């Protein structure tokens, strides 16, 4: 839940979190792409999900209890990273989706400003993270 620093200032953070939960998004993580608030917590929440996803990827028929297979697994580990990861940033107008995208990409890819509707087109950015292709949709 981006722009949480401004929600907290106005005392509506709890109400916004309740609304997100009611819509089926689970428990939201309060973040701020602009200030970095909550990014460490977001990472800690997403890391086990990412590791679980990697664990489910096929391992080319190698057995985990075979020492020779272990060495081959290390060599083939890069193969798993060839499966692209697709991420989407969704939200209401003017909640900081473009700012979050720019922050994650560490570049000014899309225009940001205080007026709603500044970014109207769908954006698809591709980047590499730990030798893995990631597609980020906004």
UniProtKB/TrEMBL annotation:
GO terms for molecular function: GTP binding. It comes from the Eukaryota. Residues 87-136 form the G domain. This is G domain-containing protein. The gene is gb27188.
